[in-house]
Amino acid sequence: MGLSGKEYFVRDLVIDDQYGVIKSNASVQEAAKRMKELAVPDLVVVEEGTEKVLGVIADFDIVQNVVAEGTDCSNAKVISTMYTIEPVSLDTPVSLAFTRMQTLRVNVVPVVENGKLVGVASIQDCWSYIPDVIPDERGLIPVSNTRVAEFWFASIAAVTAFIFGVLFPLAGVFGFFIAEQADVMTLLGLADVRGGLLFFYLFEAHGTDFFVPILSLIEQGGAIWGLNVTISTLLLILGIIGMLAIIYTSFADIRNIRTGRVVRILLPSLVVFLLILEWIFFAIAFALAPIPIAVGVDPIGLTMSIIAMVLIIVAINRDYIFKEKGLIESQKAEVK
Questions:
Q1: 162 and 214 housed in the same domain
Q2: Are 253 and 123 contacting, i.e. CB atoms less than 8 angstroms apart?
């Protein structure tokens, strides 16, 4: 029973009977050709002979499980590539069908009647019937639409994290470490010993009247500075990719588009990992310097890096920030 007081069933949906079917022993290549022929992204997989529904194969499964693994599509079988999902009946509640698809992050579920396949129900169709049926109970902040709130929250958090963690150190707004300029000039073999402080940013170090690219420290300071530049380069590239990944996956959640763990978790997490490595390798580089260098942490830079990492982690786990406002209102009504 939904908050609206009415429960819908699969029979209330417009069942798509223009579905594609393929035998379980067919090859993935045959499945791809069938999808192209019918202009559909999914095919229902049935057992040879019995016509029993076994699952669904989607274009996403072919890309992830076959193409990405370098497997020959003409040899790979549909049954080893498909996803297994229990079919629903016409009397199955829409909320259950939606939950079944949402749990597996898939777009369609087969619909059977008396053991016979009658069509498929899409997650979009189910969602349109249950805007208030399955409230999001996991979060802390009540909102009327959790998906939209999560999209804006994750997008703002991702952009802010990129600015604080990558863009500002790149532009020289604040850095990672602060060293004595005279010590660094001595390391470089420069006779002119000047005073002042040298701020180490993503790819370069700036003093009051002195500028040095990090790459120029490799010859005198060792290969560790080259590793620093490599990490900085990866941080810049993956910082952009990670930011876009968070924005894309949060938007995909609104549209009920399935996204994998690589885009959803791994890419953004790599940005956090590289930020930590950046600080560690800077510290190691100073510790391994052939001459002692008086060095300290840039407190603003460290604070901003921590904020950036926290924002990325929170954006990845945005599901635990917001909850459905309707759930609270329903609970209050039940108490009364």
A1: yes
A2: no
Q: CA angle 124-41-17, nearest 5°?
A: 65
Whole-prediction pTM: 0.60
* 121 plus 146 within the same structural domain: no
Q: What is the dihedral of CA 222, 227, 229, 233, to 10 degrees?
A: 170
Strand bridging mode 177-180 / 197-200: antiparallel
Q: What is the pLDDT along the chain (336 residues), one digit of tens a residue?
A: 344 446 788 888 766 666 789 998 899 899 889 888 888 888 899 888 788 888 899 888 888 888 888 888 888 888 888 888 889 998 898 888 888 888 888 888 899 988 788 888 888 878 777 654 445 566 677 877 788 889 999 999 999 999 999 999 999 899 999 988 888 777 776 655 566 888 999 999 888 777 888 888 887 778 888 999 999 999 999 999 999 999 999 998 887 677 888 999 999 999 999 999 999 999 998 888 888 888 899 999 999 999 999 999 999 998 888 776 654 444 444 434
Domain contains 333: no
Phi first, then psi: what are they for 196, rounded to 5°? 105, 180
The span from the CA of 274 to the CA of 271, in Å, is 5
Both 121 and 155 in a single domain? Answer: no
Per the DSSP assignment, residues forming a β-bridge with 111 are 88, 119
Give the integer Cα–Cα distance in Å for 194 and 181.
7
Give the residue numbers spanning the domain of 98.
10-129
